[in-house]
Design a protein that fits this description.
Strand content: 15-25%
Number of helices: 9
CATH class of the largest domain: Alpha Beta
Helix content: 40-55%
Radius of gyration: 38 Å
Distance between the termini: 75 Å
Order of helices and strands: HHEEHEEEHHHEHEEHEEHEEE
Length: 404
């Protein structure tokens, strides 16, 4: 019973093992102990040719086993799924003679249900009569190895199937994103082009109204052309290869406090129209290494968005804190907030949580995608916390060069 327990323990220890060779090694050493054999080795079917290949031999094996003949004992053991007990090794006059190394051996089939894996050969320096117990143990060893290998292969197949399914799902999601991106891009271009065409048609129909009418039309067309130019510029950034963009950026020392101050001044005009206050506090004079243009574009989009979606008479607060070798910049507002269902996609290209958003600000719907792109380009990350009708907080973490 102790020997069966030992073999069962080996099964348990090998269930989580990913290497068949380690499984075979563990059972070979266990088999040598429970049968009191002196040395042994294992043949497994090759995945390519299905011929038996030597995969493990005990360290004290005194000779190199010769590849079995297809009409030899190993193949007959596999054919009948029954151990072959040789109690008296006869001397042979060919390369298969092993009489000088052992007096007895057993060939154990590694078979579980319909799965046939190979054979284990356990050898005895002295003559062995193979008691009933040892014959039962031999069958148990073979079945245990085969069962453990079967479980391992089933687990691997299941894992591979799951990985394949996840990859397929990922590809489908990527295709869906591409389709949505193309559809959204088409939609964004269609509206300004329709406005341009309508204005031109209007001038052609009413050309008698003179220069003033033409000038007003050109102003309207210019507005739409600027909007299209903004879309194309943002799309160029988002669709550029990351490596090629890195080669184009101009990295230099950027003072965080000065950068935020400049952006606030740029946003004061539109904030004033909605009576929104923008206040920055505790902005340390931290020096970043990066491209001023892209960093300014990222923070300008965040602060301008806070104004666009802010409430009349609302506020925007900006502060920063040094954390180790990074700085965390928080841009908080008390605006309309973002629905919980929209938060996972808020940084997607063209995704707008506010479906009623108007185009008067020339906002392309790519702003937050640009923010994420620019921040990631500088080795940082951006996240958002928001509650509908309670406001939003955008957190930007960037690596710092030094304290100013």
């Amino acid at each position: 019973m102790d020997k069966i327990t030992q073999l069962n323990q080996t099964v348990l220890e090998c269930l989580g093992e990913t290497s068949e060779i380690k499984i075979v090694k563990a059972f070979t050493e266990a088999g040598l102990q429970v049968l009191h054999a002196d040395f042994g080795f294992v043949w497994l079917n090759s995945a390519k040719s299905h011929a038996l290949e030597l995969v493990y031999k005990s360290p004290n094996l005194p000779y190199m086993p010769v590849v079995p003949r297809e009409e030899g004992r190993n193949y007959r053991v596999l054919e009948f799924s029954t151990p072959d007990f040789v109690t008296d090794v006869k001397k042979r006059m060919d390369k298969y003679d092993v009489s000088s190394y052992m007096k007895s051996f057993v060939i154990i089939p590694l078979v579980y249900k319909q799965a046939v894996y190979g054979t284990m050969v356990l050898c005895f320096k002295k003559s062995e009569s193979f008691s009933k117990e040892k014959r039962i143990l031999s069958v148990f060893i073979g079945n245990s190895i085969a069962q453990t290998v079967t479980i391992r292969r089933l687990a691997i197949n299941e894992q591979e199937a799951r990985i394949l399914s996840e990859k397929r799902e990922l590809l489908l999601n990527e295709e869906k994103v591409k389709t949505e991106f193309i559809a959204n891009t088409t939609h964004e271009f269609r509206t300004p082009l329709a406005i341009i065409k309508g204005n031109i048609d209007l001038v052609l129909i009413n050309d008698s109204k003179g220069v003033k009418s033409v000038k007003n039309t050109l102003v309207a067309i210019n507005h739409e052309v600027e909007y299209l130019s903004n879309i194309l510029a943002d799309l160029e950034l988002l669709t550029s290869e990351r490596g090629s963009v890195k080669n184009r950026i101009v990295s230099k020392e950027v003072n965080m406090a000065d950068l935020i101050s400049r952006i606030i001044k740029r946003c004061q005009a539109i904030a004033h129209k909605k009576n929104i206050s923008i206040k920055a506090k505790n902005i340390p004079r931290i020096i970043l290494m990066g491209d001023t243009v892209y960093l300014e574009k990222a923070f300008l989009n965040l602060i301008r968005n806070a104004v666009i979606y802010g409430r009349e008479g609302g506020w925007i607060k900006i502060d920063a804190v040094k954390i180790g070798r990074s700085v965390e910049i928080k841009i908080k507002d008390n605006g309309i907030g973002i629905d919980e269902e929209d938060l996972p996609r808020i940084f997607d290209r063209f995704y707008r949580a506010d479906k009623s958003h108007n185009r008067s600000s020339k906002n392309t719907g790519l702003g937050l995608a640009i923010v994420k792109w620019a921040v990631n380009l500088h080795g940082g990350n951006v996240s958002v916390k928001s509650h509908k009708n309670k406001g939003s907080t955008f957190n930007v973490i960037l690596p710092i060069l030094k304290q100013g």
